[in-house]
Amino acid sequence: MATSTSEAVAVEGREPWDVERIREDFPVLRQTVHGKPLVYLDNAATAQKPLAVIDAERNFYLRDNANVHRGVHALSERATRAYEEVRTKVQRLLNAREAREIVFVRGTTEAINLVAATYGRKNVQAGDEILISAMEHHSNIVPWQMLCEEKGARLRVAPINDRGELMLDEYEKLLGSRVKLVAVTHVSNVLGTINPLPEIVALAHQRGIPVLVDGAQAAPHLKVDVQQIDCDFYAFSSHKVFGPTGIGALYGKARLLEAMPPYQGGGDMISSVTFEKTLYNVIPYKFEAGTPNIAATIGLGAAIDYLERIGLERIARQERELLVYATESLSRIPGLRIIGTAREKAAVISFVMDGIHPHDIGTVLDQEGVAIRTGHHCAQPLMEWFGIPATARASFAFYNTQEEVETLVRSIEKVKEIFQ
Length: 420
Prior knowledge:
Low-confidence stretches: 1-13
Number of domains: 2
Helix content: 25-40%
CATH superfamily of the largest domain: Type I PLP-dependent aspartate aminotransferase-like (Major domain)
Number of helices: 14
Shape: globular
Strand order of the largest sheet: 4-10-9-8-7-5-6
CATH topology of the largest domain: Aspartate Aminotransferase, domain 2
Largest sheet: 7 strands, mixed
CATH architecture of the largest domain: 3-Layer(aba) Sandwich
Mean pLDDT: 94
Number of strands: 17
Strand content: 15-25%
CATH class of the largest domain: Alpha Beta
Distance between the termini: 51 Å
């Protein structure tokens, strides 16, 4: 079995940062693309997986493969124990009060849809409003549009400034008596903006309005504390935090989850069933119908263990250094403009170049072995706000290096040579 080398950085703050040793944990990074060493800078789309995660999923299928919550045999008991241990790990990662406040879902998108379909349908009526921000991902726009259309409610949008920062004074003005929910991103997947959640939540709570947070881009970069933020719901995806695809988590305050109707019907979300009536299970199981993605859940637990061994604060510091270095380096390129210059940012840089379409930038960079994202990044209203059709986006993780930033810059210079 392959062994992770992350134990070398096991004690936070006591070992020097050794990115090359960390990169040994990520086999995918060792390959070449078009004859060039891979420079993977598309971490905001999905992060790569360490051996610890790959081994955890493999070992589940080799030793413990069984359904959870159903069997009394040894494999089922082992699988159930491992599965529920991950719920406790997510609780610890988010600093939730109780493990029962953690609902497993397929990812951030399903988590938001769950809240829209349960809390939203129960509490939003005709004439009510749902308030989001101008920087939201489609996953935090479309479910609310669907709910508003169904209920005859209205979607309101809090504006941002030219730097890509939420205008708090304008946001506060929109918190009227008709607003029944605020849904806002923690970190913009396009701009990298880190929203001031404690202030956003406090302003809403002063008016009795609950707040849902899209944490998909925050969980990989920041230490999240839902009690300190005091949000009512918080969603994130495993594949962004170096875990498997197809699994994620929704945090919800227990009193809200208990009052919400089930999301889907089926096995495991029930207490008893007759043809006349069904009694539903307690939270969080009330929202987890059917056989879950057990192996991926266990992989998520391994990813959380891995991140905590390295240290989330150390990761944040390393990524901050990369962000500063990359921002300074890209800003020196004539004709390149960074979209999103908030004072508080995560390790995401979107940019455009005079006279060159982002797709052409991405195509040339791919030939140089550099993987970035191009397009509207599932944020078309935000693109429209900035008056652009798309951007190129480089997004960094703690296994990236300054040398890779330099390769990115050289590759962009090649783009200029080709198209200008």
